[in-house]
Amino acid sequence: MKARYSVIVPMFNEEQVISVTYERLKKVMDECGDTYELVFVNDGSRDRSAQMIREISDQDECVKLIDFSRNFGHQVAITAGMDYAEGQAVVVIDADLQDPPEVILQMIEKWKEGYDVVYAKRLKRRGETMFKKVTAKIFYRLLSSMTSVDIPTDTGDFRLIDRKVCDVLRGLKEKNRYIRGLVSWVGFKQTMVEYEREERFAGETKYPLKKMIRFALDGITSFSHKPLKIATYVGFFLSFSSFLYLFFVLFQRIFFTSWTVPGWASIVGVNLLFNGIVLMLLGVIGEYIGRIYDESKDRPLYIVSETIGYRNEEEVDRRKDYKDVR
Ligand code: UDP
Ligand code: MG
């Protein structure tokens, strides 16, 4: 019995790369000898990406399209792909060919050996700005120092997961999703393959600084309470130092009567500094409260406007009959 794979490709304005991505994925997946589907999730692209996949899907029944009603974000697009995927193993890959599709074959090898999660660790990142590389390095290390979940450094969402891991992930309904963290959190037998990240094949990055910051904050707030504790530590430290300073002032006042009050500059300076710290800590608390608010509204994660390539209901349900063929 042949195994069946689902390859999930989130895409946002990727018309310049998507047909080449399709060709390369198809070539690689044909090599593996099993059956597969390519699930393209159109995350509200404003260009021809969706139209192009629609046309390809008319020719090739392995190709499916989940079309969102608007842009919901990369992590949500991956989540939708997992919801619709039928395969016994699910691979997530970027649309821009930065993750070489050929690595999927190595992942499949590992899966057949019995691993449930095979993530891809980047040894090198080509064609990315110094700024992105440095901030990414710092971020992954900062995150791992803050959380007890063992999230591997320098890995993206390029990975293969087994059906049972996919089903567990689908049950985690949190709204601000940091998928690579969730995959680590669920456990199971995990391993890695190493690869060199290529340059983007064409087009621009779809992760401007604003999205990157949001993503980083999602990662930290989903997996650590440490930022909240900073308030406590800073508070203790400041109270203690103020206490010492008060002693010093009293001491001077009593024993050196000629001592006079210095100018206003220091008072204003200290005031501004402390107000700044208080506001910053309020902001940290606000980040968490905002996320609690998102959870409590309980809106759906995404809205699908159309699905293409799901030719009959049976097809979607077929995964129920799968047996473990590894
Ligand atoms: N992407 C998406 N929605 C977004 C932003 C990005 O689906 O809002 C997709 C994008 O099309 C690509 C993947 O997520 O397939 C990674 O994005 P990108 O390559 O631009 O990020 P980078 O590699 O520069 O970090
Ligand atoms: Mg990219």
TrEMBL record:
Main location group: membrane
Source species taxonomy: Bacteria, Bacillati, Bacillota, Bacilli, Bacillales
Signal peptide: none
EC nos: 2.4.-.-
Membrane topology annotation: Multi-pass membrane protein
Localization per Swiss-Prot or TrEMBL: Membrane
Organism this protein belongs to: Paenibacillus pseudetheri
Entry's Gene Ontology molecular function annotations: glycosyltransferase activity
Protein name: Glycosyltransferase
Coiled coil: none
Alphabetized UniProt keyword annotations: Glycosyltransferase, Membrane, Transferase, Transmembrane, Transmembrane helix
